[in-house]
Amino acid sequence: MPYLLGSIRSQQEFRLLGYSRVSASTPSMRVKAVLMESEEIKTAFALPKKEFPLAVERNLIRRRLRGVFRELSNSRDLCGGLYLVMGRRSLINLTYNDMLGELRYLLERIYGSSTPERKI
User: Fold this and answer.
1) In what order do the strands lie in the sheet with 4-7?
2) Which pLDDT score is estimated for 116?
3) Which of 18, 45, 94, 116 gives the lowest tally of CB atoms within 10 Å of its CB?
4) Domain range summary for the chain, segments of one domain joined by +
5) CATH 3.50.7.10: does it fit domain 4-113?
6) Which residues pair with 42 in a beta bridge?
């Protein structure tokens, strides 16, 4: 059974991400995570208007990142928890496969450096 994939909506979940010290970054994106023992995966994407002035660009990147997370959750490469992806300007130049590879790299770094923090 694939993991349940959803969006971060509550203020409590965003607060948990704010307190989390589990993160990894590359020149094009940064990922913060709160790993939990549940099978639910919740994501949020921070794509600032200053970095991506056109809504078309922000929406394109969001769609690609949602697809990448869906693919990773179906292949069981993703642990349950909360994930915040913060994009930088160079993210617009990456293809879907480049994003997938970069996100896999970031998740390997996150999983190698942390243990599940706490269960909500």
Assistant:
1) 4-7, 40-46, 81-87, 29-35, 23-25
2) 45
3) 18
4) 4-113
5) no
6) 6, 82
C-alpha dihedral over 57, 60, 65, 70, to 10 degrees?
170
Name the amino acid, one letter, at 70: R
Task: Give 56-71 pLDDT, tens digit per residue.
Answer: 999 999 999 999 999 9
In this prediction the pTM is 0.86
How far apart are the C-alpha atoms of 22 and 5, rounded to whole Å?
20
Q: What is the pLDDT of residue 48?
A: 94
Cβ neighbours, 10 Å, residue 110 = 19
Distance of CA 65 to the CA centre of its chain: 8
**DSSP assignment of 39-100:** SEEEEEEE--TTT--SHHHHHHHHHHHHHHHHHHHHTT-S-SEEEEEEE-GGGGG--HHHHH
